[in-house]
Amino acid sequence: MIVSRETHERLIAYEALVRKWNARINLVAPSTLPEFNSRHIQDSIQIFDHVKLSEGNWVDLGSGGGLPGIVVSIYAQKAPLTVSLVESDQRKSAFLRTVIRELSLQNVSILTDRIENVPPLTANFISARALAPLSVLLPMVRRHMHQDGTAMFLKGRSWKAECDEARKEWRFDVTSFPSKTDPDAAILKITGVSHA
Ligand SMILES: C[S@@+](CC[C@H](N)C(=O)[O-])C[C@H]1O[C@@H](n2cnc3c(N)ncnc32)[C@H](O)[C@@H]1O
């Protein structure tokens, strides 16, 4: 995806901070650092091929080192969007605060708490990557997503089985898109979540 010079510079600065902090905190698997751009940045940014940003709030659940939440924030600096990163780990939250400060990100805040404990956020958009199977994510979506909201999940090879399992308890509309960065992975776009 082609991005503006400002966005590109912020993405480079973000990568440098991950590399610096990763020696102390396991933000990403060290084996993925040589391919950080494709494995993490491009993997996250492809969300925007499939969702049209509108005014509102975007909530990234289990942000860890900021994937995809920080990338969403960088990409949406000029959009009328606020971004909330929910991350229970104090040290990862400290890292995320550092990124926000050093990159002068204007639209993003951090909630250092468990997703289940955060008061409902009524999000227009929700994202999550490598957090939990769909049957565990959907109760979180129910709690935090506006009824007309859209959830974007970056999922690995088990995404079809996860959809089947989740349908035992939940109704939802799902569209899957092949990942550009991993032939077995998919991006799931989910709306209309309710109990079966
Ligand atoms: C495997 S990491 C993935 C991080 C990031 N999304 C990524 O793709 O690199 C999962 C993250 O979710 C956080 N997490 C797990 N369960 C959580 C919960 N219930 N509430 C808040 N954060 C949670 C963990 O602390 C961890 O940082």
TrEMBL record:
S-adenosyl-L-methionine binds at residues 62, 67, 115-116, 129. GO terms for cellular component: cytosol. Belongs to the methyltransferase superfamily. RNA methyltransferase RsmG family. It is an enzyme of class 2 (transferase). Specifically methylates the N7 position of guanine in position 527 of 16S rRNA. It is found in: Cytoplasm. SUPFAM superfamilies: S-adenosyl-L-methionine-dependent methyltransferases. It holds the Pfam family GidB. The gene is rsmG. It catalyses: guanosine(527) in 16S rRNA + S-adenosyl-L-methionine = N(7)-methylguanosine(527) in 16S rRNA + S-adenosyl-L-homocysteine. Coiled coil: none annotated. This is Ribosomal RNA small subunit methyltransferase G. The keyword Cytoplasm applies. GO terms for molecular function: rRNA (guanine-N7-)-methyltransferase activity. Keywords: Cytoplasm, Methyltransferase, rRNA processing, S-adenosyl-L-methionine, Transferase. It comes from Paracoccus haeundaensis. Its EC number is 2.1.1.170. It comes from the Bacteria. Its main location: cytoplasm.
